[in-house]
Amino acid sequence: GAVVSQHPSWVICKSGTSVKIECRSLDFQATTMFWYRQFPKQSLMLMATSNEGSKATYEQGVEKDKFLINHASLTLSTLTVTSAHPEDSSFYICSAPGDGTDTQYFGPGTRLTVL
Amino acid sequence: AQSVTQLGSHVSVSEGALVLLRCNYSSSVPPYLFWYVQYPNQGLQLLLKYTSAATLVKGINGFEAEFKKSETSFHLTKPSAHMSDAAEYFCAVSDGTGNQFYFGTGTSLTVIP
């Protein structure tokens, strides 16, 4: 089946630094990938749609200059949290459509803790 | 516009008892419906999906769900709960293009020994 990986699985950083999270589709190509944010005990909130070879599409209220998305290849999308602050601490999950696009396959998530 | 509502943010069942997690949807187009399970500190794993074929869908780990258009529902069931079923369950709806997925708020399932 379709497998999506994320790296790192957990990262702790100091306030003001930038953190890059990778999302890879391991056994299929994905022209589109999605980035979600999940707060404790809450559902997933779509942040942005990552498009291979073009600019990402951000959901309303998501700062595109703070959450930089790059989709440089058909198997890799990266999310960079710039100048991170404690309020950016969250669980970030990516997904990619597989199986003829009607199903989303999710990565294992990345827990970001900003001190 | 599409949305899902999951009734009951917390459900507790005894081990061996029936599991019923409720999901109602709203969609202006024929919906594609999904149930995902999330274990602590992990991503989402697909349990099952409805994509306009059979209305009774069987998934992994003994779960199944029935699409009822008249009730706009897609409830998840399992005849006998196991301790390993304790997790967070999310219902989602999409238009089938693989793009926008709309998630419910999730239901936390606790299995009591």
Structural commentary:
- The complex is a heterodimer of chains A (115) and B (113).
- Chain A has 115 residues and is mainly β.
- Helices cover 0% and strands 55% of the residues of chain A.
- In chain A, strands 2, 4, 5, 6, 9, 10 and 11 form a 7-stranded mixed beta sheet that branches. A 4-stranded antiparallel beta sheet of chain A has the order 1-3-8-7, with no helix packed on it.
- Chain A is globular, with a radius of gyration of 13 Å.
- The mean pLDDT of chain A is 91.
- Chain B is mainly β.
- Chain B has no helices and 12 strands.
- In chain B, strands 2, 5, 6, 10, 11 and 12 form a 6-stranded mixed beta sheet that branches. Chain B has a 4-stranded antiparallel beta sheet with strand order 3-9-8-7, with no helix packed on it. A two-stranded antiparallel sheet of chain B has the order 1-4.
- In chain B, strand 8 and strand 9 form a beta hairpin.
- Chain B starts with a strand and ends with a strand.
- The chains are: A mainly beta (115), B mainly beta (113).
- At the A-B interface, strand 5, strand 9 and strand 10 of A face strand 5, strand 6 and strand 10 of B.
Mean pLDDT of chain B: 91
Distance between the termini of chain B: 41 Å
Helical proportion of chain A? Answer: under 10%
Fraction of residues in β-strands of chain A? over 45%
* Mean of all residue-level pLDDT scores of chain A: 91
- Shape, per Cα inertia axes of chain A: globular
**Main sheet characteristics of chain A:** 7 strands, mixed
Short description:
With 115 residues, chain A is mostly beta strands. Helices cover 0% and strands 55% of the residues of chain A.
Task: Tag the structure with descriptive keywords.
heterodimer, A: about 120 residues, mainly beta, 7-stranded mixed beta sheet, 4-stranded antiparallel beta sheet, about 0% helix, B: about 110 residues, 6-stranded mixed beta sheet, about 55% strand
